[in-house]
Design goal:
By secondary structure, this protein is α/β, with parallel strands linked by helices. It has 15 helices and 10 strands. The radius of gyration is 22 Å and the shape is globular.
């Protein structure tokens, strides 16, 4: 059976405008909503884990690739989603989390990383060797070095796939993504005035160098597995700012793509783009739209709205105090936000709550926070939310409850906070 993303590329080569959202999250509510939408729309869902979330040492989630694979498929079984409707992917697979190590050790870890992802059954692999390691020389990393390391990782991934196929003959052959013209995963760390769009020359050089290196390494056919190149089309977000897609700024880059019908562009950091901007990106060849922080931002936003309603409805001594619990946990373990947020104490407190970078996503799945969230849901089932109050705090969800699309259950309202963002991507790729 041909990979769904290869099928998408065939449709694009025939002139059809189509694409796919890529949901980059390890949050169980986000994953649940992505799977529910796959079932509702009868379309495959693409779910990605990043190298810092999930790796052979557990990442920040504590999961190795097989754990993540099993978690998603367990959720899918509960929801009633068939295995062939799930595309699992690994993002930024390479030395991302081992940049402080010399090349030999960093690459040994990277080889094991991509091997484990492919061996577990992930079928979309982003080969990202664009970051420097400890003993790299000064200056920019050459495209040659990036491609040579990428070729090594491609072979490690295919070794994992071949082993998987030996015990599971129906295992899907993976497809690969190359290139990386973006900041570290999760959005920009500093305020920016403008963004440099990838030049057509840089894009062409990436493809040509990979083609040459793969041929030299005796894996020329491996380029047939490459379906997309990561570029910077001029979209990004930070604490308070969002750079919207500018078709005119990316016109030369997108024109260059026409010379390479075998690939599309993959756009990272597409979070918070307007539906029309996302749609235009797909039309321009940015057919894989990566989104992560916006999904947990939507969840956090919904949970805060439910918390405000709880303060109105539930006796103070019975309240879940979700917002306060999240803040306490973030202050007790600041390592996942401290380097990303800047300013005085007031500015930091506001960023912890409201930043588009959404570093709260590192904490929202912790046991203490989840317990508070579930208590919030229980309280608002006992003290039912009035429709007029729902309109005040969650006007978009109010319309769906009013029209019978979703129920008034607080957990479903939280899931709808995620769906509000997912709908923009479903519209952009023509699913709704």
């Amino acid at each position: 059976m041909k990979h769904p993303l290869q099928q998408m590329m065939e449709r694009r080569r025939k002139g059809e405008i189509c694409g796919i959202p890529s949901y980059c999250s390890a949050n169980e509510l986000v994953l649940e909503q992505a799977l529910k939408r796959a079932k509702a729309l009868n379309t495959p869902t693409l779910i990605e884990a990043t190298a810092n979330q999930v790796n052979q040492f557990g990442g920040y989630t504590g999961m190795v690739p097989k754990d993540f694979y099993d978690m998603v498929h367990h959720l899918a079984k509960k929801i009633g989603v068939e295995e062939n409707m799930i595309i699992l992917a690994g993002d930024h697979l390479g030395p991302l989390t081992w940049q402080n190590l010399p090349e030999k050790e960093a690459m040994e870890n990277s080889i094991e990383l991509v091997y484990q992802y492919a061996r577990a059954g992930f079928t979309k692999i982003h080969l990202d060797t664009s970051m420097k390691v400890a003993d790299d020389s000064e200056g920019l990393l050459s495209t040659e070095t990036i491609a040579r390391r990428g070729a090594i990782l491609y072979q490690a991934a295919m070794k994992g796939y071949e082993e998987l196929k030996a015990e599971k003959p129906e295992a899907m052959r993976p497809v690969f993504i190359i290139g990386s013209e973006v900041p570290i995963p999760g959005g920009a760390q500093e305020e920016e005035d403008s963004l440099a769009v990838t030049s057509p020359a840089a894009f062409k050089d990436t493809v040509a160098t990979y083609q040459r290196v793969f041929e030299q390494e005796g894996i020329a056919q491996g380029m047939d597995d490459v379906i997309a190149v990561v570029v910077q089309p001029g979209v990004e977000f930070g604490d308070e700012q969002v750079f919207l897609y500018d078709h005119d700024a990316a016109v030369d880059l997108c024109a260059a793509l026409k010379e390479y019908p075998q690939v599309c562009f993959e756009g990272h950091s597409s979070d918070y783009q307007s539906p029309e901007c996302l749609k235009k990106m797909v039309e321009d060849g940015i057919a894989i739209l990566k989104v992560g922080p916006a999904l947990t931002y939507g969840l956090r936003e919904a949970l805060f709205a439910l918390s405000f309603m709880e303060k109105e409805l539930v006796p103070e001594d019975r309240q879940a105090h979700f917002m306060e619990t999240l803040e306490k946990v973030m202050l007790e373990n600041p390592s996942n936000w401290q380097k990303h947020y800047h300013g005085d104490e007031k500015q930091l407190a506001l960023a912890r709550k409201y930043s588009f970078s959404d570093r709260a996503r590192y904490y929202i799945g912790l046991p203490e926070v989840v317990a508070s969230m579930n208590k919030l849901f229980d309280n608002l089932r006992e003290y039912r939310i009035p429709m007029n109050m729902l309109h005040q705090y969650m006007p978009v969800s109010y319309q769906k409850v009013r029209d019978g699309i979703i129920s008034l259950d607080p957990r479903e309202l939280a899931l709808d906070g995620i769906q509000i963002f997912m709908s923009d991507y479903e519209y952009a790729v023509g699913l709704i």
